[in-house]
């Protein structure tokens, strides 16, 4: 496999916009993502909404040389805040690697770039959610992620949602 370069995406650049859309389309279509395409109306709004959101950070894993680089992975993250630590945190909202490049360290490189940015910003932690049976759990656990616990007797944190 060609060398992988991790870049922080700049949504002001048209090529970065196209790469982010391509990677989000691939992630959405994957059974471990959305299992189908992004809703056309949501896709139409996506780049503008990401650019307008004040805490958006996106990394792309690029394969190939400067003139022929193609995206093979993405990490879409948002800066959050921990009230208990009184410090920022980074939530890894989407982490995806195209199927042909999985198991080759691309996801690990993306997570390392996110962690480096977190340290630079003085973050107290990285957070993410993962489906219970997603094979990527092995990657996350080997990178130091674990189920969140705050008090021993309270049990582990659960991710919950309420559609609006």
UniProtKB/TrEMBL annotation:
Q: Mind listing the UniProt keywords for this protein, alphabetically?
A: Acyltransferase, Transferase
**Superkingdom, natural source:** Bacteria
Record Pfam families = Acetyltransf_1 (PF00583)
CDD domains given in the database record: NAT_SF
Sorted alphabetically, which InterPro entries does this protein's record hold? Acyl_CoA_acyltransferase, Diverse_Substrate_AcTransf, GNAT_dom
Positions of the N-acetyltransferase domain: 4-164
The molecular function terms in GO held by this entry are:
N-acetyltransferase activity
Return the protein name: Putative acetyltransferase
């Amino acid at each position: 496999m060609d060398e992988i370069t991790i870049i922080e995406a700049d949504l002001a650049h048209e090529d970065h916009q196209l790469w982010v859309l391509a990677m989000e389309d691939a992630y959405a279509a994957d059974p471990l993502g959305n299992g189908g395409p992004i809703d056309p109306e949501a896709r139409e709004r996506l780049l503008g909404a990401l650019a307008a959101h004040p805490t958006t950070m996106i990394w792309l894993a690029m394969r190939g040389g400067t003139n022929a680089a193609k995206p093979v992975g993405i990490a879409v993250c948002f800066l959050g805040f921990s009230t208990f630590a009184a410090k920022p945190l980074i939530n890894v909202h989407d982490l995806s690697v195209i199927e042909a490049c999985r198991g080759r360290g691309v996801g690990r490189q993306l997570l390392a770039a996110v962690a480096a940015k977190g340290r630079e910003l003085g973050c107290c932690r990285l957070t993410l959610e993962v489906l219970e049976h997603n094979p990527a759990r092995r990657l996350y656990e080997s990178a130091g992620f674990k189920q969140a616990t705050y008090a021993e007797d309270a049990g582990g944190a659960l991710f919950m949602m309420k559609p609006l």
